[in-house]
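Field reference: sequence -> structure
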Amino acid sequence: MFVDARQIEQNTTIRTTVCIVGAGVAGITLALQMQRMGIDACVLESGGYKPDEDTRDLYRGENAGLPYTFADGSRSRYLGGSSNCWGGWCRPLDPWDLERREWVPHSGWPFGLDELRPYYARTHELLRLGPDNFEPAWWEQAIGRADVRRLPLSGANIRDTISQFSPPARLGKLYRDTLAAAGRVKVLLYANVTAIETDANAGAVTHLSVATLSGKRFRVVAQRFVLAAGGIENARLMLASNRASPAGLGNANDLVGRYFMDHPRLMSGWVHFSKAWSRNKLYDIKYHYQNPAVSAHGTRISSQFALRPEVLARERLLNARVWFFSMFYGEGSAGAEALIRAKQALLRKDQPGYRVGRDLLTMARHPLDTVGFGLTRLLQPRALISGVRMQAIVEAAPDPESRVTLSQQRDRLGMPRVRVNWRVGSLVQRTFDRTFGLLADELERTGVARVTLDPPTEGQPWPASLEGTWHHMGTTRMHDSPRQGVVDRNCRVHGIGNLYVAGSSVFPTVGANFPTITIAALALRLSEHLARTLGDTARAAGVAPAAGTPAQGEAHALAAPDALEGEPS
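Structure field:
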């Protein structure tokens, strides 16, 4: 059921069992599970069904670190969250991504990959993925094309890996009808949480204060509260909720907002293929989003290179993924960049200061570059490729000084805006350099290509071409000890009995894989934990399970939700 929060009576109190803040991948996954388990839930979504400028402004803040875009264009503050601007990449983390590595300070999860495997398998239906198989040989055989072949890697240092593409699943659109028909779940649109209120000792959340940009104020009372608002907003809400805890909720050890991570991305070198490999599409990112050649079983896939785990340990490196990047005609020109910005504006992902007239004029002044780049992107003719480079994303090293804090600026709701200080250190630089270098050696040794590398990055200022991938992670990290993490292994905030965090902000380390599939897997795992704890509470209170409860531990809500007009507080 959807409700426009702007129509709720002023100072209403809404009561439910589980309150979820944010209707992105984590929030919608949790809401669908609450409905399936027969648990009453209320989802608070800041936006509506589509982007609007006033709501989008609430994401903006100050940048204090490396040049970094973290609001417009990289997040979507409306139903579906960041799935609305997601490219669809999906691959589970590698086993060693969750392990403690002595050369990576602050590394390690409270559990291993085996804990997540069954939940990863369930994400395939949720995210509309193909078979639960990520073996390169299996996909090569299934595709069965001469121009989609695995390279003859020697096996000593380099391995190839597979990622699957979700269509991509825009969860707000994909599950809108399901949520509209849900009897147990109410999704409140245009509802912004302004404070997490607790008892005097900050040991339990009592309610959330909620506001709309139209001026309505109300509150939500629940037994369990889950923050699923993203890697930046989760930390912002906890830091800003400082009535009972001056440093912010869950922040007794000054950890909330720290360890902010994103996957840094760089290009390097030029790859000159031998004739036998010059038209292979399997590892080239320009052929993965739209080209049906690189697909099987109704699923598009991509292959990337990675270093073997024993090489990572021997060379004391972070994880990384590398692919080829064909340079299309006009790429990087003023006309091509103007065309890209125009597309972003059409998708409502444009940046502050964007001027459509200015870019239309630029495209008119550079017609060959603009039209040539557009047609090459659309039709992908090999003849118009000007060269091939290598591109990599590298695992971010956890750094407590890379962090999200509160700004002195405030938004229209009176909330402090964020101040983001993204830091990327020398271990990441060395990982870029060695990964590119070892892959170049492998390509030359096997006769696949000659490679000319760019100068090393280690010890040098980061080049202007360094960019993030808009994966906001790590700010409420998971650890069994409250001195080293904000949430425990069940994603409950240390010291607060009924507050949980969902999404990539709980990642202690992030691997080199795109986070959406892991966000969904953790949300599925969290939903089962919530059902178990609610079931234990119900049994302790002597409340009989609801009819049709799907499985042991998946208990019904203890109290039916009030009507949405609620009760004046």
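Note: Confidence is low (pLDDT under 50) at residues 544-569.
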